[in-house]
Amino acid sequence: MTHLENNTSGLAGVGQKLLAHSKVAEFTARRGLVVELFPFIVGASERMSARAISRFLEKEQGVTLSSVTVTRALNDPRRSWNLYFDAIEPSARTYAKADGMGMDYLFEKQFFPKPIKNPLVKAVVKAAQKALIPAGVSEAALILRQKWFAIDWEIRLKARPFLEHRLK
Asked: Does the predicted model carry a pTM greater than 0.85?
């Protein structure tokens, strides 16, 4: 181990080597990952510790997210829910405005109908939607299906108190 003197030039050299290494090393920073997974982390945290969640994500999914990061997100649910909602709020508002309703629909147990499995009926419905629904509203609905209504209803209900100020 090299002894560093208490001078700026010694630390600058260390810093330069660190920066050079970061440019050739595998990219591991995945900022925002905890935000994207937050609703699911909330659900899992009812039965698993932050450490167990972190281990599962690493082993089973190949996703590196430290238990410290998981704990930090769970300890500040207001911030975490609001960051998550930032990604879907424009779509939620677009959809609500198109249907002339408030934002309470976000907390209904089953808002969108279940996906159609029959290929013929699916094609007819898709063509009708394309003809009748503006593209922006259709895109908003898709985002809501993927990012909001994919979350268990009970977990969405837990988010409500933290998002109430944004739902008006």
From this structure: no
